[in-house]
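Batch manifest, entry 17 of 40.
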Amino acid sequence: MQEWESKQPLVADLDATWHLIGHLQSNKVRRAAYLFRRIDSVDDLALAKKLDAAAAAEGKNLPILIEVHLGDESTKSGVSEKDFPALAEGVAPFAHLDLVGLMTIPPFSDDPESARPFFRNLRELRDDAVRRIGRGLPVLSTGMSHDFEVAIEEGATIVRVGTAIFGPR
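Output type: structure tokens
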């Protein structure tokens, strides 16, 4: 949030849709609901409840993605694969949140093929969730500059290629 708030004035004149990717602290939910068109990193039910209330206060319906943590990296956030079904079922009925899909960031490797099992697993989790909650989840956000082609082959509908466009941070 702090990074975005410092950079937002630099791009305020762009006709763009801004999504929040990254861990969202519960004390910043209200600001996030105001600033962003979609939150791509919902990872627990308490956070979702706060987002639903914040979206209601803003008078808007806020699309969200559930971030699923599929690797063993302690530096990444997201709901565990085991806890994902309950979160999807818990979030689906909220009046001001629109669950539209899933997001993951697999462990980094120079070999794009090493990410394939994570991309496939996310797609399979999404397909199972669609059956469980009885509605479509059209968005699979996964893949970055170094592995986006494999991600697309495995069903990604959104890839994040900022490094390829802007260079390393």
